[in-house]
Amino acid sequence: GEDVEQSLFLSVREGDSSVINCTYTDSSSTYLYWYKQEPGAGLQLLTYIFSNMDMKQDQRLTVLLNKKDKHLSLRIADTQTGDSAIYFCAESIIAGNKLTFGGGTRVLVKP
Amino acid sequence: EAGVAQSPRYKIIEKRQSVAFWCNPISGHATLYWYQQILGQGPKLLIQFQNNGVVDDSQLPKDRFSAERLKGVDSTLKIQPAKLEDSAVYLCASSLRPHPGAAAGTDTQYFGPGTRLTVL
Asked: Which of A35, A41, A111, B11 is the most exposed place for a label (fewest CB within 10 A)?
């Protein structure tokens, strides 16, 4: 079955790196995504990784995938106050099919 | 490029009343999704359309929820009658995905701002 889990909360100081973790149970997950949700707004896609990749870097964002442990992480370098939001990881077995989301990690960036 | 549009942004109703939400996807996007996001949780897929056909409605409570996508563009989601536990944000998303197996990258889902429903 599909189950995606995340820690609830992360507090980080401005300028430090943030690491948000996610675990999933479905070994047939093919696509894994990170979305950002700011208050009152919809979800914004930050990045995604295919299951045949171990790492993907996109500017301040680094995604690491450990397929053996079914663990996904998002590292935000030089965290800014504008990065304060809820971050969701999501998995999809088939491209374009439904996304299964984790419960979200609320990130608070302190000045 | 205009994003996914939804209306209304907020709706407050009493239980047993009916309510409808509207979604206009990004122009040219073949696939449309409705998600329910209960406070403190991640979004959960209710229904997925490919053009004007239903691909997946396995998690749609069909005794009270209905959705349609006439002409394969705009979509409406209706709840009749509403229950207290329907209080949530209803998110609409769309993706280009012209057909199953389409090139990678066409499946990226773009989300609208959502409609926040409060059932009293």
From this structure: A111
Chain A touched by B53 (CB under 8 Å): no
Find how far residue B93's CA is from the centre of its chain: 7
B50-62 residue pLDDT tens = 888 998 899 999 9
Strands (E), B18-109: 19-24, 31-37, 44-50, 53-56, 65-68, 75-79, 88-95
Strand partners, A36: A44, A87
Cα separation of A100 and A23, whole Å? 12
B98 band by pLDDT with thresholds 50, 70 and 90: low
Q: Which residue of A has its CA nearest to B32?
A: A96
End-to-end CA distance of chain B: 37
Amino acid at B113: P
Angle at A27 between CA A26 and CA A33, to 5 degrees: 70
